[in-house]
Structure formats: C-alpha cells, structure tokens
UniProtKB/TrEMBL annotation:
Location(s), subcellular: Membrane
PANTHER family, alphabetized: SPORE GERMINATION PROTEIN A2
Entry's Gene Ontology cellular component terms: membrane
Single GO biological process annotation from the record: spore germination
Keyword Magnesium: no
Keyword Transmembrane helix: yes
Pfam families per the UniProt record, alphabetical: Spore_permease
Gene source species: Bacillus thuringiensis
Name of the protein this chain belongs to: Uncharacterized protein
Amino acid sequence: MLTFTGFESFLFFYPYIKGPEKQKIKSALLANLFANLSYVYVVLISFLHLTPFQIQYIAEPILYLLKTLPISAFFRVDLVFLSLWIVCVTTSLILYSWFTL
C-alpha cells in the first residue's frame, strides 16, 4: 500500500505543479525509476549474500545484513536504520491519510 503513495501523490499534485508538461513527467519518471532501482538493489543484495534456505527463514534479511556491518560509531546499525525507516513510513502514512480527507 505505501509503495504506491509516490505515484498517488504525483496524481494528486499534478495540476498544481508549475512548469512544462514534459518536465513534470520527466521528474515523476525519474522518481519512480529511483524507487524501483532501490528495490532491485535491496533484492539483489539479499540474494547475493544469503542462501535460499536463509531467505525463507529470515523475516527481515536487510536488517540481518545490517547487523553484520562493522561500524565502530554505532553498536547497532539496524536500530539506526529502523529509526530512519519509521520516520519515512510515518511521513508516508500522514501524506496518504491527508489525501483521503
């Protein structure tokens, strides 16, 4: 549900965006391309580092892989990632609920 909020917000704000039509479409396509490439990157990293057996039994493979990063400034990189992820999801939910009003 939240993966489509970018496209829905574009449809909602499209009449209010100033600029040439071609530039509006190009910006939307680039944003969509960036989101899709990030999804593909996450899936490829998961498949390259984990076996099919591990992928079946690990609920969140990205968090599992983040725990293996040796960063001395943070003891738990996955908790930093979860904090940032919660902020992103919350803003998406607020935007999505604002569209429904």
